[in-house]
Amino acid sequence: MEPAAGPASFRLAYVPGVTPGKWARIWGERVPDVPLELAAASAAEAADLLRAGAADAGLVRLPIDRTGLSAIPLYTETTVVVVPKDHEVAAVDEVSVEDLADYVVLHPLDDRLEWESTPGVAAKQRPATTEDAVELVAAGVGLLIVPQSLARLHHRRDLTYRTVSDAPQSHVALSWLEQRTTDLVEEFIGIVRGRTVNSSRGRGQQAQAQTSAAQKAQKTQKAGKAQKASAGTSAQVRRTGSAAQAKASRQQGGKSGSGRSQGAKRGKPGR
């Protein structure tokens, strides 16, 4: 019976504004036998993708419906207001929510900031997405308060953004299905938490151990070959030395015999 095949890949969903590139690179180094597939997902659909099994884990923006899901907060983002470059808010470095009270503030349907009360003057309609809201800001319809990563994602030359000091903040988290906390999920948790290879509890540590064992076996094999080669060379040297010694002995013996013959001839004068 053939052994069961390992997972073909590890699928990671991520919402707009989140950049998983660094973690994907580390994954490739630690778990090279399991490709990491990145799947872009909207903030609204990310949790449903995880529950449906369409992704093994997801980088999501809290809050989400956490039914059946585990989540680990990773970092908190600065909140900013997006404005036209020639808007008076662009003249300062930072504003408060109260400073925006007299302006129309757009509130898109995919907003993940938890407001106790909607800031500013409400627009007549709510844009469907943050991207749509940015277009409306450019058109002069209103202002938009978002996490800084989204302001950067939808950057336009005619827009800029400023920090909102007292606005709710966005929290990015790693989430996965509680019933599917696999070794690969554990490995990715270790990566996003900054664990080293030796402290990781997932497959990366096993892979490192296997690599070390393979390297050790390779070194042992090379050492064995070198030892055999050295032994062969020593034996050859010994054989060469013995042959040379025997030849020298034969030559010495030949010279001694010749000397005795000549001595015998000299000792017998002719009559």
SSE diagram, text form:
Blueprint: E1 10-14, H1 21-30, E2 36-40, H2 46-51, E3 57-62, E4 69-77, E5 79-84, E6 94-95, E7 104-106, E8 121-122, H3 130-138, E9 143-147, H4 148-153, E10 159-164, E11 170-177, H5 183-192, H6 203-267
Parallel strand pairs: 1-2, 1-3, 6-10, 7-8, 7-9
Antiparallel strand pairs: 3-11, 4-11, 5-9, 5-10
Structure write-up:
It is a single chain. The protein is an alpha/beta fold and 271 residues long. It folds into 2 domains: 10-76 and 171-210, D-Maltodextrin-Binding Protein, domain 2 (3-Layer(aba) Sandwich), CATH 3.40.190.10; 79-168, D-Maltodextrin-Binding Protein, domain 2 (3-Layer(aba) Sandwich), CATH 3.40.190.10. It is 39% helix and 21% strand. The protein contains 6 helices and 11 strands. The protein has helices spanning 21-30, 46-51, 130-138, 148-153, 183-192, 203-267; strands spanning 10-14, 36-40, 57-62, 69-77, 79-84, 94-95, 104-106, 121-122, 143-147, 159-164, 170-177. The strands form 2 sheets. It has a 6-stranded mixed beta sheet. The chain has a 5-stranded mixed beta sheet with strand order 2-1-3-11-4. α1 (21-30) links the parallel β1 (10-14) and β2. The longest helix has 65 residues, at 203-267. The model is unreliable at 258-271 (pLDDT under 50).
